[in-house]
Each structure stands twice: as C-alpha cells, then as structure tokens.
Amino acid sequence: KYFNVLLQAKHRFAPHVLKDLRVTLVQGDLELESYLSETGAVSFEHVSLGKYRLEITSLENRLASVILDVKA
Predict the structure, then answer these.
(1) What is the pLDDT of residue 19?
(2) Can you tell me the distance from the alpha carbon of 63 to that of 3, in angstroms, rounded to the nearest whole number?
(3) Distance, CA of 35 to CA of 22 (rounded, Å)
C-alpha cells in the first residue's frame, strides 16, 4: 500500500546530473514534502497509493512537473 520514489534529474540533452534543485511532492493542492538537493537526487519514502505531482525547480525557474498516479 506504500511505495518509494527516487528521482534523479539529468539535463535533457546531456548526460550530466542537474544540481541545486528543489523537488516538491504535491497531492491535490497540498504540498506534502519538499527537499533541496545539491546532488540532483531526491527520495520520498513510504508514500501512500494515489495521485501526486512532482514539481522540479531550480533557483531561477520551474524545470519540470511529473504526474504520478499509483494504483494497487
């Protein structure tokens, strides 16, 4: 009934990992967790099944939004 999310952000056109990111786990309009990562990797553990959004931002702008819809 739970899952873990490990996200590693890489540059779209090059193989290097993006650094100094903030990744936020959102369900509906509620921010559940948010982590600042200097290494480009973030982990969310023991997340309940459901629909979520991962917002990936840098210091300057929004980089990506990923929708997760996890069902049993």
Answers:
(1) 87
(2) 24
(3) 6
